[in-house]
Write a structure and sequence with these properties.
Elements (H helix, E strand, L loop, with lengths): L12 E5 L10 H11 L4 E4 L3 H6 L4 E4 L11 H20 L4 E5 L10 H13 E6 L12 E3 L6 H4 L11 E5 L8 H9 L6 E5 L5 H12 L4 E4 L5 H10 L2 E3 L9 H8 L4 E4 L2 H10 L4 E4 L5 H13 L16 H13 L10
Helix pairs in contact: 1-12, 3-4, 6-7
GO molecular function, one term: transferase activity
Protein name: Glycosyltransferase involved in cell wall biosynthesis
Keywords: Transferase
Length: 348
């Protein structure tokens, strides 16, 4: 009889994620990634608990923000987490389980301790494969990596009311950290003359920053400031009411905020850099506006004039960021990490 080769299906990859089961306040990116991976044949996705990560059996550990693993709200909680992280890294080394990391931020957080820095450096050395969110991310020579673009939020935000824009209104939404430049936005807006308004909403990272922003906003009755965490419905409302969403980050590389604004069909004003230039080319003309240097009143006014005078498509083109391919691309990354020379693995 003629022999026939049979293509056996590739084994399912068990992936331990570094994020816990998503909650209502969890970043929608994590919700959508978890759901998409769970629906992808060949992936067994597991959300994080310390018990599951230390005692469970899995093929790949997928890290997103490893700094969360080594931090805590109290010295005791931080010390316990750091000890558990050492145990986790030891387990991954002993079992030769590769770490796949999605590089959401280019740099480690500022102001962290020497112990946190040392643990994160060890985490980075143990990483076998890196997922970057855009083509402009520079990695050390020899780093095994792939690009999986940050998915859009269209379906996630679609259930919420899509209000019309208020003529002449600028808006900012999202968590407020010092590097995001909201203080500069308030200062620049104060010099804008005319029938315009500004809506700023989001939770500040510190009480000092909240006090500073409150002082800057108090001098201008055209500014509406809400310093609290935003629900998804509130985020959509703030984004949609602006004719222009302004994101004056002092450093911008992977901006979920820009994608959130574009996902609800609002143009953005962002710092000029290679990443934002690529995004502008991707989504089509009239949606991503850039400025050089420090944000100024003229940047705000000139961009608003462009929006009023130049036509643009009904919606930005976010087709490259559809979630229907994200699961397959992640599975390919996991399998690439597993393809490194390793000791024989037992069935998991």
């Amino acid at each position: 009889m003629e022999s026939r080769s049979v293509n056996k299906p590739e084994p399912t990859v068990a992936v331990q994620q570094s994020f816990p089961e998503p909650r209502e306040t969890t970043n929608p990116y994590i919700h959508m990634l978890r759901d998409n991976l769970a629906a992808t044949p060949g992936v067994d996705v597991r959300t994080f608990t310390w018990r599951r990560a230390l005692l469970g059996r899995y093929d790949v550990f997928h890290a997103h923000w490893p700094e969360i693993l080594v931090s805590g709200h109290s010295p005791l909680k931080k010390a316990v987490r750091q000890a558990l992280t050492v145990a986790l890294l030891a387990k991954l080394a002993i079992t030769r389980t590769p770490i796949v990391r999605t590089l959401h931020n280019l740099h480690r957080p500022s102001g962290i301790s020497r112990v946190e820095n040392a643990l994160l450096a060890l985490f980075e050395r143990r990483t076998a494969f890196v997922i970057v969110l855009n083509e402009s991310t520079a990695l050390p020579d020899g780093t095994r990596s792939t690009v999986i673009p940050h998915g859009h939020y269209r379906e996630w935000f679609a259930p919420y009311p899509q209000r019309p824009a208020v003529t002449g209104r600028f808006s900012y939404f999202g968590l407020i950290r010092r590097y995001k430049g909201v203080d500069r936005l308030l200062t620049a807006f104060a010099s804008v003359a005319g029938d315009v308004s500004l809506r700023v909403a989001g939770k500040p990272s510190s009480a000092d920053l909240a006090d500073e922003l409150s002082r800057l906003a108090a001098a201008d009755e055209r500014v509406e400031l809400s310093l609290a965490f935003l629900s998804d419905a509130e985020l959509v409302d703030v984004a949609r009411q602006g004719e222009l969403v302004v994101l004056p980050y002092r450093e911008m590389h992977n901006s979920g905020g820009a994608l959130a604004a574009l996902s609800v069909d609002r143009p953005v004003l962002v710092p000029a850099n290679e990443v934002n230039a690529r995004l502008s080319d991707e989504v089509g003309p009239g949606w991503v506006h850039q400025y050089d240097g420090e944000l100024s009143a003229e940047h705000l006014l000139s961009t608003l004039r462009v929006l009023h005078e130049e036509p643009r498509s009904e919606r930005p083109d976010l087709s490259r960021r559809d979630w229907d391919v994200a699961g397959t691309l992640h599975l390919a990354a996991y399998r690439a990490a597993l393809a490194r020379p390793r000791a024989t693995r037992t069935s998991r």
